[in-house]
Design a protein that fits this description.
This protein is α/β, with parallel strands linked by helices. The protein folds into 2 domains: 257 residues, Alanine racemase (TIM Barrel, Alpha-Beta Barrel); 128 residues, Lyase, Ornithine Decarboxylase, Chain A, domain 1, CATH 2.40.37. It contains 13 helices and 21 strands. Strands 4, 14, 15, 16, 17, 18, 19, 20 and 21 form a 9-stranded mixed beta sheet that branches. The protein has an 8-stranded parallel β-barrel with strand order 5-6-7-8-9-11-12-13, surrounded by 6 helices. Strands 1-2-3 form a 3-stranded antiparallel beta sheet. Strand 14 and strand 15 form a beta hairpin. It is globular, with a radius of gyration of 23 Å. The protein binds ligand LLP. The site of ligand LLP has 21 residues, from helix 11 and helix 12.
């Protein structure tokens, strides 16, 4: 469910007409719905009622300071993966003390920064990392809280680039070696064994792989709790969202109309399947959702530059490009594209929707059927709140897009469009070329 819908002919985010946002701030611009994020957070939390749960928002999905602050206000902590992300948490006025630090290659400087800021735990992916964290903690005279990431070898049935829980991925320690890894960790004087972590992949739309992984790991977690006094189990992120019918899926009626057995995963179904498996453990449960929390809470607004009619092919050239939203180019992912002004009297248009970047990969959709639109008209790319701006670049010297947050009838710029001066701010021509 989300808060993007047509009110009359105009697409709104909550009570805000998106055309008004585009008029004020230009395009391409990301727009996020605070109410949708709040609903997502609360539904997930309610789904696991009865457990001691801490939601750690996987901020790699969207790390805008306003988004972080909104989630912190709701009671979220963060799953972070770099010193930069940790500094964002602090800059947002949020607390790192309930947050976890993941990633396969944390540097000594990053480990130090996290310890100084009282990180809840490090999620450790290898034995050499244990040694490194132990070393840094020793130099600071503290004990570093850690959890080891277990790779449960479960097939998440998702895109190859975002599946992580199979044994041929670079992530985590296979279950059969994890006991030895904990034994080794326990011998380090500056490490405190706090928990156990897993994450099997992203954009999962069925609950089966989650159940399989939790069932596999729970007995081991119970064993480790008894042996080392662990206090938490993080079951990772990965809950998928609806991309294909994105706009319609904002309404409860769409969910009701899905045939039984084909309904995409909901936080309620996720909670109902997993809570009974986790209840008996007596451990605090951490969740690391990224996409689920923000994916359907954001759209990318774009303007049509040209409709180019080719031989047997139409191209709708828009002012957003793969540098703004790389997911279609990188994962062949689908984003629904809708007009900001709906006009049912118009003919349909079938076109490739492309950006202005000089490579063929800069294509958002092939042979997409849309309402006919022309130069200057506005479109929204749905489900762009997760891994949208966060993965954007300046390719072709295109500035980073603007970001806007909506709450009810209020909206505010939360990240101004990058200026040319900011873009080249760190660059200079060296003396030997002058
Ligand atoms: N925890 C860990 C350890 C992760 O590696 C990830 C995501 C998450 C949590 C959050 O997963 P989520 O709930 O968002 O599925 N750029 C890709 C997705 C990459 C996900 C990487 N890891 C995309 O645009 O689809």
């Amino acid at each position: 469910m989300h808060h993007f819908r047509y009110a009359g002919p105009n697409l709104h985010c909550e009570s805000v007409d998106l055309a008004e946002v585009a008029r004020l701030y230009g395009t391409p611009t990301y727009v996020y719905s605070a109410a949708t994020m709040e609903d997502n957070f609360r539904r997930l939390q309610r789904g696991l009622t009865g457990l001691d749960v801490q939601i750690c928002f996987a901020m790699k999905a969207n790390s805008n300071l306003a988004v972080l602050r909104h989630f912190a206000n709701l009671g979220a902590a963060f799953d972070l993966v770099s010193g930069g992300e940790l500094r964002r948490v602090i800059a947002a006025g949020a607390n790192a003390k309930a947050s976890v630090f993941a990633g396969v290659g944390k540097t000594e400087a990053e480990i130090k920064l996290a310890l100084e800021n009282g990180i809840f735990a490090f999620h450790v992916e290898s034995e050499p990392e244990l040694a490194r964290i132990n070393h840094v903690a020793g130099t600071l005279g503290v004990k570093a809280p850690i959890a080891i990431r277990i790779n449960p070898d479960v097939d998440a049935h998702t895109h190859a680039k975002i599946t992580t829980g199979k044994s041929d991925n670079k992530f985590g320690i296979p279950l059969k070696y994890a006991g030895a890894a904990y034994e080794a960790a326990a011998k380090y004087p500056n490490l405190a064994l706090k928990g156990l972590q897993m994450h099997i992949g992203s954009q999962l739309t069925e609950v089966g792989p989650f159940v399989e992984a939790v069932e596999k790991v729970v007995p081991f977690a119970a064993e480790l709790k008894a042996k080392f006094g662990l206090v938490y189990f993080s079951i990772g992120g990965g809950i998928g969202i609806v991309y294909r019918d994105a706009l319609a899926s904002g309404q409860p009626a769409w969910w009701d109309a899905q045939p039984a057995g084909q309904r995409p995963l909901t936080p309620e179904a996720y909670g109902a399947a997993l809570a009974p498996l986790l209840r008996g453990l007596g451990l605090k449960i951490l969740l690391e959702p990224g996409r689920f929390m923000v994916g359907n809470a954001g759209v990318l607004l774009s303007r049509v530059e040209h409709l180019k009619r080719g031989a047997g092919k139409n191209f709708l050239i828009v002012d957003a490009a793969m540098n703004d939203l790389v997911r279609p180019a990188m994962y062949e992912s689908y984003h629904e594209i809708v007009p900001l002004q709906r006009d049912t009297s118009r003919r349909a248009l079938v076109a490739d929707v492309v950006g202005p970047i000089c490579e063929s990969g800069d294509c958002f959709a092939k042979d997409r059927q849309l309402q006919e639109v022309g130069e200057g008209e506005l479109l929204a790319f749905m489900s762009a709140g997760a891994y949208g701006y966060a993965m954007a670049s300046r390719y072709n010297s295109r500035p980073m897009a603007a970001e806007v947050l909506v709450k009810g009838s209020a909206f505010e710029l939360i990240n101004a469009r990058e200026t040319f001066e900011q873009m080249i701010g760190g660059e200079k021509v060296p003396a030997f070329l002058k």
